[in-house]
Amino acid sequence: MILEMVDIRKAYGKNVVIPGLSLTVNEGEFVGVIGPNGAGKSTLFGVISGEHVADSGSIQMAGENLSGLDAAARCHRGVARTFQIPQPFLGLSVYENTLVSATFGAGLHGEEARESARAALLKTGLLTLANNGADTLTLLQRKRLELARAIATQPRLLLLDEVAGGLTDAEVGELLELIVSINQSGVTVLWIEHLVHALVSVAERLVVLAEGQIVADGIPKAVLDVPAVRETYLGSDLEDDEADSVVADAGGDDVRG
Amino acid sequence: MKSENLSVTAAAANTTGVAVNKTYWIKSIILLGLLGVLIALPWFTGYSTQRLMVELFTFYAIALAWNLLAGYGGIVSVGQHVFVGIGAYAMFSVSTTFSLNPWLALPASIIVSILFALIFAVPMFRLRGAYFAVGTWVLAEMARIAVLNSDWLGAGGGIPLTTMTGISRWLRNAGVYWAALAVGAGSLAVIWWLMRGRLGLALLSVRDSEAAASASGVNVLRTKVILWVIAAAITGTAGAVAYMNTLQVSPGATFSLNWTAAAIFIAVLGGIGTLEGPLIGVIVYFLLRECFSSYGSWYFIILGCIAILTMVLAPGGAWSLITRRKQIDPFGIRRILS
Questions:
Q1: What is the mean pLDDT of residues A204-215?
Q2: A88–B216: do the CB atoms touch at under 8 Å?
Q3: Per-domain residue ranges for chain A?
Q4: Are residues B121 and B236 in the same domain?
Q5: What was the pLDDT predicted at A239?
Q6: Residue B97 and residue B17 share a domain
């Protein structure tokens, strides 16, 4: 397995966001993560990526203990993440943004680094904007830059935090294709997304978080049938068939917790 | 399809290559000409001009170092004068103890400043934000008090640079001027070279978002400590050269907050986080000083007002007034994908 978390606890002062969470992810898996706002999804990613330090519990990647390693060290071991609220390097160009990842994340030099940074821009459709300042990008372009930067670190484990929000259907389709192709190249993907219908169309496993705990975990179709999940996401009074169609059509607005 | 693309990019690279070469030569000739004029300055100017230029170059180097820390590393130090003092005292004591030519003792400033910075990086970098700023100031104050009570460093009276005797007045003034020129131009060259390399890329990313830099694999703490050490070396050497002309170091003047205050003023005025800013800032600072310093305390009130106005109206400093209209990069530190 690539990721093994046991009894992870994380609190900010008195506010316990994750009271005790265990999760195992196998190499090459494509895992969707859903849950209401404030369920601790982004905090979970923060704990995996090393942005936040867990209060207790253990976290291992490919058998190596990650606790005690900072975000940069975890990046070097293959953890890459996007930020829900994009954090581009605003004073740098789009290309320089990905060059940082290729240089320090993937540890590449010279032409190799330039080529890798360029490839990440090509994949995410940002190549034409390469030499523009990152501060000139729209919100959607910034989200794509988040993805480009994460790819350019050449990750083994990719943590995506709401990269599809606000996209049109066609754009979501392109994004899904890209992420599936990244997954098929051997990268394990964990993806937080409010667009449940997009997520379940590609994820082979769905994890539902509520109040920092996993309330359901399994094949997407089965998970969405769990009463507690239905209650949270779809309202308990729906019939099975109706619920399925809601799941299929669900837009971002329908599934907010 | 693929080979066609390749040949197109190859051709494009070629033409830009020629263009880059041409501007490169023009820039080089201008720079060398300017450097030649600056080197020849002692032969056609008086001592007072040379002394002013010494101040200008040393203030410039100290401001450049402060700007590097604050603008690129997000490290706000209000105690940079500790390195002015450490650097100056290192040179003075090595030179007088071993009867060494003061210029040959300058490397001692670099070495001692670097060692001091490395040792005190351990406690300092445990502090964050405002605490770091206060910490650096306390560090400088502690160093001043320690020197004040050290008989082997001359205590309150300081150290006179006795090894300067026997050197002709002209040579002393010209020599100090050349040392200052070397410090000013050298620190710009070092920082320019660093900014174009891996460290520069890391610094720029840390400047813009520490969280994202760290997530992209940049070792933020190591980057900051390297920066702190480089800034210390530059500030220490500049401090030593600044006191070569006065021939005397003393705890009160050498470990004076005024050094840091001037550096901050120059960097803020010119533009924090740019290579160009301190160059503009130092020129404006000296113009103001030459024009208004006779007004006494009013001069400081005017300086303060200008700093506040700059922060409110043009937070990016004077240089941002130019880049706001047109993106230019005279130092060529941007990386362009061709």
A1: 89
A2: no
A3: 3-78+155-255, 93-154
A4: yes
A5: 46
A6: no
What is the average per-residue pLDDT within A83-87? 91
Q: Are residues B59 and B36 in the same domain?
A: no
Fold topology of A3-78+155-255: Rossmann fold (3.40.50)
Domain that holds residue B4: 1-44
- Say what the pLDDT of residue B2 is: 41
The reply to whether B334 falls in a domain is: no
- Put simply, the answer to whether A92 touches B208 (Cβ < 8 Å) is yes
Residue B54: inside a domain: yes
Taking an 8 Å cut-off on Cβ atoms, the answer to whether A99 and B215 are in contact is no
Residue range B172-192: mean pLDDT, rounded = 91
For residues B225 and B244, membership in a common domain is answered with: yes
Q: Would you state the pLDDT for residue A110?
A: 87
CB contacts of A114 in chain B (<8 Å) are 337
Q: Which of B201, B218, B336 sits opposite A72 (nearest CB)?
A: B218
Query: Which residue numbers of A have CB closer than 8 Å to B's CBs?
Result: 49-51, 70-73, 75-76, 80-81, 83, 87-93, 95-96, 99-101, 103-107, 114, 117-118, 121, 130-131, 133, 149, 153
- Min Cα separation B334/chain A (Å): 8
ipTM over 0.90: no
Which residues of chain A make contact with B226, given a CB cutoff of 8 A?
Answer: none
Q: What is the pLDDT of residue B19?
A: 61
Q: Give me the DSSP letters along chain A.
A: --EEEEEEEEEETTEEEEEEEEEEE-TT-EEEEE--TTSSHHHHHHHHHTSS--SEEEEEETTEE-TT--HHHHHHTTEEE--SS----TTSBHHHHHHHIIIIIS---HHHHHHHHHHHHHHTT-GGGTTSBGGG--HHHHHHHHHHHHHHT--SEEEEES-STT--HHHHHHHHHHHHHHHHTT-EEEEE-S-HHHHHHH-SEEEEEETTEEEEEE-HHHHTTSHHHHHHHH-TT--HHHHHHHHHH--GGGG--
Quick one: pLDDT at residue A81?
A: 93
Query: Does B143 lie in the same domain as B34?
Result: no
Most B-contacting residue of A43, A87, A132 (CB-CB within 10 A), to test interface: A87
Q: Which of residues 217-276 of B touch A (CB under 8 A)?
A: 217-220, 273
- In B, minimum Cα distance to A145 occurs at B212
Q: Are B88 and B24 contained in the same domain? A: no
